[in-house]
Specification:
Layout (H helix, E strand, L loop, with lengths): L19 H11 L8 H14 L3 E7 L3 E8 L5 E3 L5 H4 L6 E3 L12 H4 L6 E8 L5 E9 L7 H40 L4 E5 L5 E4 L2 H6 L3 H4 L10 H6 L1 H12 L1 E9 L5 E12 L5 E10 L1 H22 L4 E5 L5 E4 L1 H7 L17 H17 L3 E8 L5 E12 L5 E10 L1 H23 L3 E6 L4 E4 L1 H7 L12 H5 L15 H8 L3 E9 L5 E13 L2 E11 L1 H19 L9 H13 L3 E7 L4 E9 L10 E2 L7 H6 L4 E3 L12 H6 L4 E9 L2 E10 L7 H40 L3 E6 L4 E4 L1 H7 L9 H7 L6 H12 L6 E8 L8 E11 L5 E9 L1 H43 L3 H16 L3 E7 L5 E9 L7 E4 L7 H5 L4 E3 L12 H6 L4 E9 L2 E10 L7 H40 L3 E5 L5 E4 L2 H6 L3 H4 L10 H17 L3 E8 L5 E12 L5 E10 L1 H82 L5 H25 L8 E3 L1 H16 L3 E6 ...
Parallel strand pairs: 45-47, 51-52, 51-53, 53-54, 54-55
Antiparallel strand pairs: 1-2, 1-6, 2-3, 4-5, 5-6, 7-8, 7-11, 9-10, 10-11, 12-13, 12-16, 14-15, 15-16, 17-18, 17-21, 19-20, 20-21, 22-23, 22-27, 23-24, 25-26, 26-27, 28-29, 28-32, 30-31, 31-32, 33-34, 33-38, 34-35, 36-37, 37-38, 39-40, 39-43, 41-42, 42-43, 44-46, 47-48, 48-50, 49-50
Helix pairs in contact: 2-5, 10-33, 13-29, 17-18, 17-25, 21-25, 23-24, 25-26, 25-29, 26-29, 33-34, 35-36, 36-39, 41-42
């Protein structure tokens, strides 16, 4: 014995080459597992024990998870777990196995049956091998002591083993024969649809089933022994037909046909018959089986139905409508002649879908989808669809289809008609197009628009109205009183009476109003400044309401406020201003304009410290005159100010620069701010700051205004500083004069010598000792630009009179200064007594004064320029306002052109203004309007490339600005063409429509001119308003034309066309009412249309219309009316509800068609149909009776088959569970006996045996739930590639070496949403099936892929459209026929030999995949292999790697006071759970059902966790949890269930803080789950 023999793999390869799975299949085919005790096997076991002198002898069978004892002596148990089995190792080698001492064999080193002190020591066993070479188990003996067998004992053991195998083979044969006989007799007797007779070789009847009484009138015992000839007519007997049939059956094995037979009562029976020869196992004939199926009534009904169908179709063919019939599945069976005449289709075409060829391609999918939905709903339906006529044109038809039900409530057929509605449809489309165009025009207006009725309720509004007032939907406005919406109060908060509202007054009195400025209330309570006009709505001389348009003038008011502020600011800054006066000067006015709470000025030192000079507040915040570092406000603000940037912060909390400084800013009440830097010679000296205490979105205008204010402050401050410097200089001069500190000079005219003192030296840098002549003076120190002036002044002074004075300012070039020095010189001429003439004077340095004077002059010039610009801007704004008013009144393009030309010519002072429209070629323009000043008109066509290359600028939407056509590179080559037109400078502003150049507005001048940006911007504003005005005039004109076209079409229509309002009153009727029925337009309005209805139909017709109107459903009715001549005519009236684009109901629109002639024909047809219907009804009643009888018989057969299948299933389940319960109960009895006797040292073996049986029972219930699609799925994202890769080794071992496995896994595979464990089992099952289909070997390929199903593909797969993950198992095996493939997923269906397959494998896979929301399909071909595809739903989140958790072997204990409520109706389960809770320290509360649990939940007692069974009597566990959550929202719930119908998918069943355990469960698992749920946060 080789004790070093290795432990075999889970799927060992036997010496014969068969795998473990094939051996198990062979074992199952014998059907001997778990059978009751058999004396023959017991005798063999007893004899074996006696011969071998062994205390233990066993005949065992090795299954996949246990060793089961067919017979045993000395063990006392029926089975044991596989891991304890010795025989499981013994069958892996051929022949007798003898192990003298089991403890010496390392294969059993861990086996507790061997290694315990009193364990087994000796083993000898012979395998029980089938004729196919498979070992099913062993006949073995065991002993508690080591030993050996003699040669005689060995031979006897082998012989007894062969005898045991023969008995097993005999049991297999007997079981198969018994099953076959039972099934045959049950099938023979339960067949109620056919009469079955068995015949002997001589043609005599041996037996008959009960159905023979029904078909032939003979009782079964009456037929026994009779010759078969008694069933045939005398003519057939004379022809020898019975003998001929027997001969054919002998030759061919079977013969079948339809013939007449003779009943017992001599009536004839028409039946389908089959005569089959019966053969024994040797192929010898031993009798016949004769079957008859009665078709007498069916053949009679068929003949009657054919006759009736011919008459009915003749009636349908004369119908003026398309009429068709379909079967219960919707396939076309019949279409009348009108259809083929209209479409030209071939009536002999057998394709049931050929009618789709006449459907317009654009509507085919919609029609098919509607038809599929109708078939599913099983309800009448209608659809409008265009059909192609024989001439190739399409006309609209209204197709209506209705199901016809039989008495059982099932659809028997579909009946459909189609009416030609092409004329009505096209008229309706034209009307809807006109209304849609009108709505589009209103919604495209930039001005708000609405209308009201006389009571002040809104009837219409456009999108601009909703946007300006903050409404989200028209439903919030329509039907509401307008005054309550927009004028509930004045701006000051006082109430605003409705009678004072101008719009309301217009609706009441018809008076028009134009309000240039008013305030209306927005939805959020804010006030909106508007300019509006209200005009009355008159209809037929009666006032119906008012229409109002208004526009937002917020920007206009803000512009006026800014202009007024700047003008006021200019007046205030005319004088001087110190920095401490800034806040007082600006605060109130600038604060109101910007709507801020604080304004101030601060100077900034080099360290960034703010020293605030002044501050203004609105009183809601502190002045804040303290000193702060600029770094206290935000990050990087100082650097931005030093760069000259304005710091703009809309919200200090959101802005990243200030978010971290929020605490400081909140203390200063700063939530938004503007910081404008002030620089002096490039150095940051101060800033103007503006603070808001709430978030503030600073507009471009706000920033520009603040910058301009800061610039003006800077200029005025500089001017103030300069004035102060000048004042100080004059003060110093006066002081110098007073103390004689001015420079003094002396000019000796006679000697031409000039001298001066040290002060002039300080001014000029020339030594006072130097004596210069005038010439030297001029060329030495006098600035070159001033030499002539100084020379002339000196000469004039020298020649002047005595005591004459001279004053002169000039520059000198000092030697100690880089810049010239300004000197102010004053002198007096006098003559000394000796006749010497002198000029004596003083000199003063006035350099700073000159510089201040220059600066002050520049400031004054800048202020003058800004005032001029503001004045021009105000003029332009006034012109824009004037233009808006004028354009609103203009009604055509000529009037618009004149208004624009007049305003532009006046404001811009140009020579010409014009408007040009682009022609179709894109390069030629048509000047339609122009205005000129003393020049000729430009109207006409011009080719733009002849005038320059600027056309591309226009197409890009850019304004073309030409200051001089002769110098601009775009026009210089074409200057002569412009000069001919007397144009030297011009501006073209393009007008774009939908991004395309449509026209442009231009101005030109007769001289070169530099156009300013303000002029260009002003022209753009003018162009925008001109374009809007022109679009408005075109829209008005188009609207009038559309309404005129609609009226013309309606009046020309060959039907009565009408429309109603929301009150069911007629508001429109075409002229046909007057021409054919004598009603004028005014007479039809309101309820006037009812005048022509005859008295008998009036009440019903009005009620029909009102009912449809109230339900907002399509209206259809037929009524009798009087025409203009007083004759009665039939009208078909149809109407549809009208809705606007927002879904608001507007009323009905419809038409009425004269159907008098059609009605007469229809009445005649209906009479014929009624007669036909009566005949069909009688036939139908007979047919129903026969169908009912046949269905009753079929249902009885199905019920019999179902009960047989259920009997087999429940028998197997009962057998398995009895075996498992025997193991559990037996082990528990042995444990009890051992405990009573005190022998507790070896209880583990019995505990393990009981546990193994319980585990097998759990596995069995799991398989049953899988088959029934009722197992609880733990669905989660699954990586199929990873799953398949992890199972590859298992697949390889399973299929063996003769099958090659390949995997083709998609690289970017989506995650699937499924139960990973169930998916593993399904794949393994498919691999095993594929292996069995390749007995000679082959290739097995597993592939994965992504799959997206559209609606059509999903319908074929019976799935919802969407993304799926596909896994395919492909083999090259035997394949399946179509008949077998169709049944492959059916339960209990198998092609394997008896005992080798249950037929549940594929059914369980199919159930699992369908429960997961997927689908399974088979693609196969005999001899070419099989592909099984599983489609699983895609999960859109990535798969998360699960981190394995180390098991905690110690059950966690409860914390103090933790309480668990247990609700379980099974007392034993409840007791176990309560015991576990008590052992772990929990406070346990119990209830047997929900009714007992609710009072505990409603009490004040502490409950940390609710543990409840799902399947409680009365209120189930899930409903109890919902009730408990209402009382205790945070209560955690743990469900325990063996099977819950609604708990099949955990994620769908469980809510937050819920979990589920499946029975049976481990106590450890229960303890851990309870602890984890209570401790979870």
């Amino acid at each position: 014995m080789n004790h070093a023999e290795p432990v075999l793999s889970p799927t060992p390869m036997l010496p014969t080459g068969w795998s473990e799975s094939e051996r198990l299949a062979e074992l199952r085919r014998y059907g001997i597992l778990d059978i009751p005790a058999t004396p023959a096997f017991d005798d063999i076991v007893q004899l074996t024990a006696q011969i071998c002198h062994a205390p233990i002898a066993v005949i065992n069978l090795i299954t996949e998870d246990r060793e089961w004892f067919l017979a045993e002596k000395g063990l006392g148990v029926q089975e044991m777990p596989l891991h304890l089995s010795i025989c499981a190792k013994a069958i892996q080698q051929p022949g007798l196995t003898v192990i003298a001492d089991l403890r010496g064999d390392r294969r059993f080193a861990s086996n507790p049956l061997v290694q315990t002190a009193d364990g087994l020591r000796f083993y000898a066993g012979v395998p029980l091998v089938t004729p196919n070479g498979f070992p099913l188990g062993t006949l073995c003996v065991l002993d508690w002591q080591p030993r050996v067998l003699s040669a005689a004992q060995t031979q006897a053991l082998e012989a007894l083993g062969r005898q045991a195998m023969n008995l097993i083979e005999l049991h297999k044969i007997r079981s198969a024969y018994h099953r076959s006989e039972t099934i045959s007799r049950q099938l023979f007797d339960s067949t109620s649809e056919q009469a079955l007779l068995t015949l002997g070789l001589g043609g005599h009847i041996l037996s008959a089933n009960p159905a023979a009484m029904t078909a032939l009138g003979w009782a079964p015992d009456e037929l026994a022994g009779q010759p078969i000839d008694i069933l045939f007519t005398a003519e057939d007997q004379a022809k020898g037909v019975p003998c001929q049939l027997q001969s054919l059956a002998d030759r061919d094995g079977i013969t079948q046909d339809e013939a007449l037979f003779l009943r017992k009562d001599k009536h004839l029976l028409q039946a389908n018959y089959t005569l089959r020869a019966l053969l024994d196992s040797e192929g010898r004939r031993h009798g016949y089986l004769f079957s008859l199926k009665d078709v007498t009534a069916e053949r009679a009904r068929q003949r009657s139905a054919i006759q009736n169908e011919a008459r009915y179709r003749a009636l349908m063919d004369v119908s003026p409508q398309i009429v068709w019939f379909g079967d219960r599945h919707g396939f076309m069976e019949y279409t009348n002649r009108y259809w083929y005449t209209y479409t030209g289709l071939d009536p002999h075409d057998t394709d049931p879908d050929n009618w789709m060829r006449a459907v317009h391609p654009d509507h085919a999918e919609r029609l098919q989808r509607t038809w599929r939905e109708t078939l599913i709903r099983r309800e009448p339906s209608r659809i409008e669809v265009p059909f192609r006529g024989v001439d190739g044109t399409y006309r609209w038809f209204e197709a209506r289809v209705t199901p016809a039900f039989n008495a059982a409530g099932e659809i028997e057929r579909w009946v459909g008609v189609a009416l030609d509605i092409d004329d009505r449809r096209r008229a309706e489309e034209a009307r809807l197009e006109s209304e849609a165009f009108t709505r589009l025009l209103l919604d495209s207006l930039s001005e708000a628009f609405y209308s009201i009725d006389r009571t002040g309720h809104v009837t219409l509004c456009n999108n601009a109205f909703l946007q300006l007032l903050g409404f989200t939907d028209r439903d919030q406005v329509l039907g509401q009183p307008i005054h309550a919406l927009i004028h509930p109060m004045h701006v000051d908060g006082s109430s605003s009476p409705a009678q004072d509202c101008p719009i309301y007054r217009t609706a009441q009195t018809g008076e028009s109003f134009h309000i240039e400025q008013d305030w209306i209330t927005r939805q959020d309570g804010s006030f909106l400044p508007v300019e509006y006009r209200s005009e009355p709505i008159w209809r037929d001389g009666e006032l119906e309401g008012a229409i109002c348009t208004f526009m937002d003038i917020s920007e206009r008011l803000r512009t006026h406020d800014r202009q007024r502020f700047l003008l006021e600011l200019g007046d205030r800054l005319q004088g001087t201003l110190t920095l401490t006066d800034v806040a007082q000067t600006l605060g109130q006015s600038l604060g109101n304009v910007l709507r801020v709470q604080r304004i101030g000025y601060a100077w900034i030192d080099e360290a960034g410290i703010l020293h605030k000079e002044s501050s203004w507040t609105d009183g809601s915040v502190e002045p804040d005159l303290a000193t702060y570092s600029l770094n206290d406000y935000g990050n990087g603000l100082l650097a931005e100010l030093r760069q000259g940037s304005i710091v703009v912060v809309d919200d200090t909390i959101v802005d990243p620069r200030t978010h971290a400084y929020q605490d400081t800013l909140e203390q200063l009440a700063i939530r938004a701010m503007l910081l404008v830097p002030q620089h002096d010679k490039g150095v940051l000296k101060g800033m103007l700051y503006v603070h808001a205490s709430t978030p503030h979105t600073w507009s471009v205008e706000d920033i520009a205004l603040t910058r301009e204010v800061a610039d003006r402050i800077r200029i005025v401050a500089e001017r103030t500083s300069a004035a102060e410097a000048l004042r100080l200089a004059e003060q110093r001069i006066n002081l110098a004069i007073d103390v004689a500190t001015l420079g003094v000079w002396d000019y000796d005219i006679n000697r031409d010598v000039i001298s001066w003192d040290h002060r002039i030296t300080e001014m000029t840098g020339i030594s006072p000792e130097a004596l210069l002549s005038t010439a030297e003076l001029l060329f030495t120190i006098v600035h070159p630009d001033d030499r002539l002036t100084v020379q002339a002044a000196i000469k004039a002074a020298a020649e002047g009179d005595e005591d004459s004075e001279t004053q002169l300012d000039f520059r000198v070039c000092g030697t100690h200064r880089a810049e010239p020095v300004w000197l102010s010189v004053r002198s007096r001429h006098f003559t000394e007594p000796d006749g010497t003439r002198r000029l004596i004077g003083i000199a003063r340095d006035i350099t700073q004064e000159k510089e201040h004077a220059y600066t002050l002059n520049a400031i004054n010039l800048e202020l003058t320029r800004q005032i001029e610009e503001r004045t021009a801007a105000a003029e332009r704004q006034a012109a824009l306002n004037e233009l808006s008013d004028a354009l609103r009144e203009a009604s055509d393009s000529d009037e618009i052109g004149g208004v624009v030309a007049h305003i532009l010519g006046r404001i811009l002072n140009v020579s010409r203004v014009g408007y040009a429209r682009m022609l179709e070629d894109g390069e030629t323009v048509q000047i339609t309007h122009d205005w000129s000043h003393n020049t000729t008109s430009f109207t006409g066509s011009y080719y733009l490339p002849d005038y320059g290359t600027y056309i591309d600028d226009l197409y890009r939407g850019e304004a073309v600005v030409i200051n001089d056509v002769a110098n601009d590179p775009r026009t210089c080559d074409h200057a002569s063409a412009f000069h001919v037109l007397n144009v030297h400078a011009f501006i073209d502003v393009p007008l774009l429509e939908h991004g395309q150049l449509t026209a442009f507005l231009f101005v030109s001048h007769v001289q070169p001119r530099v156009w300013s940006e303000a002029e260009v911007g002003f022209l753009r504003d003018i162009a925008d308003r001109v374009w809007a005005a022109l679009e408005r005039t075109r829209s008005d004109q188009a609207l009038r034309q559309s309404e005129a076209r609609f009226r013309l079409m309606a009046d020309s229509a060959p039907a009565l066309i009408w429309a109603s309002d929301t009150e069911a009153q007629t508001i429109f009727a075409n002229k046909r009412y007057e021409t054919e029925y004598g009603l004028t337009y005014e007479q039809t309005l309101g309820d006037g249309w009812q005048r022509i209805i005859i008295k008998e139909d009036l009440e019903r017709a009005v009620a029909e219309f009102q009912a449809a109107f109230t339900a907002r459903r399509p209206y259809r009715d037929e009524m009798r009316v009087y025409d203009k001549q007083g004759q009665i005519r039939w009208l078909r009236c149809e109407g549809m509800p009208r809705y606007d684009t927002e879904g608001q109901f507007l009323g009905y629109i419809g038409c009425s068609v004269d159907i008098t002639e059609a009605r007469i024909a229809t009445d005649a047809l209906e009479n014929m149909i009624a007669e036909r219907t009566r005949e069909l009804g009688e036939s139908h009643a007979r047919l129903l009776a026969e169908i009912y009888e046949r269905e009753r018989a079929e249902e009885a057969l199905r019920q019999s088959q179902k009960m047989e299948a259920i009997g087999q299933l429940t028998g197997g389940i009962a057998h398995d569970f009895n075996n498992m319960l025997t193991g559990i109960v037996g082990a528990l009895d042995l444990i009890r006996m051992r405990v009573i006797s005190g022998r507790t040292n070896d209880l583990d073996r019995y505990i393990n045996a009981a546990t193994a049986s319980a585990d097998r029972a759990s596995a069995l219930t799991h398989r049953l739930l899988t088959f029934a699609r009722r197992q609880t799925l733990d669905t989660r994202p699954v990586d199929l590639n990873q799953l398949i890769s992890s199972l590859r080794d298992l697949f390889v071992r399973t299929v063996g070496e003769h099958v090659r496995i390949e995997t083709h896994l998609h690289a970017d595979l989506w995650p699937a949403f499924s139960d990973a464990h169930q998916l593993e089992n399904a794949l393994l099952n498919l691999v095993i099936n594929a292996r069995d289909a390749m007995p000679s070997g082959g290739q097995l390929r597993i592939e994965t892929s992504n799959l997206t199903l559209d609606s059509e593909s999903a319908r074929r797969e019976t799935l919802e459209p969407g993304d799926y993950v596909q896994v395919q198992v492909i083999d090259t095996g035997l394949g399946m026929s179509p008949e077998i493939a169709a049944k492959a997923f059916e339960p209990f269906f198998t092609t394997k030999p008896t005992g080798q397959g249950t037929g549940l494998g594929l059914a369980m896979i199919y159930g699992f995949v369908k429960q997961s929301g997927g689908h399974a399909r088979i693609e196969t071909c005999e001899g070419k292999g099989t592909t099984i595809s599983l489609l699983l739903p895609r999960h859109h989140s990535p798969v998360c790697d699960e981190v394995p958790v180390e098991p905690n072997h110690a059950m966690p204990r409860a914390q103090a006071g933790q309480t668990v409520l247990v609700v379980e109706d099974e007392a034993a389960v409840r007791m176990i759970v309560l015991e576990v809770l008590n052992e772990l320290g929990y406070t346990a509360l119990e209830a047997g059902d929900a009714e007992q649990a609710l009072p505990i939940i409603q009490s004040e007692r502490r409950i940390d966790l609710l543990v409840s069974d799902v399947g409680l009597p009365g209120m189930n566990g899930r409903q109890l949890a919902e009730q408990a959550r209402q009382l205790r929202p945070d209560l955690k719930v743990l469900f325990i269930t063996g099977y819950a119908k609604n708990a099949e998918t955990r994620k769908e069943f469980l809510g937050p803080n819920m979990d589920l355990l499946t029975k049976p469960f481990d106590i450890d698992a229960l303890a851990v789950k309870i602890h984890d749920m209570i401790q979870a946060s």
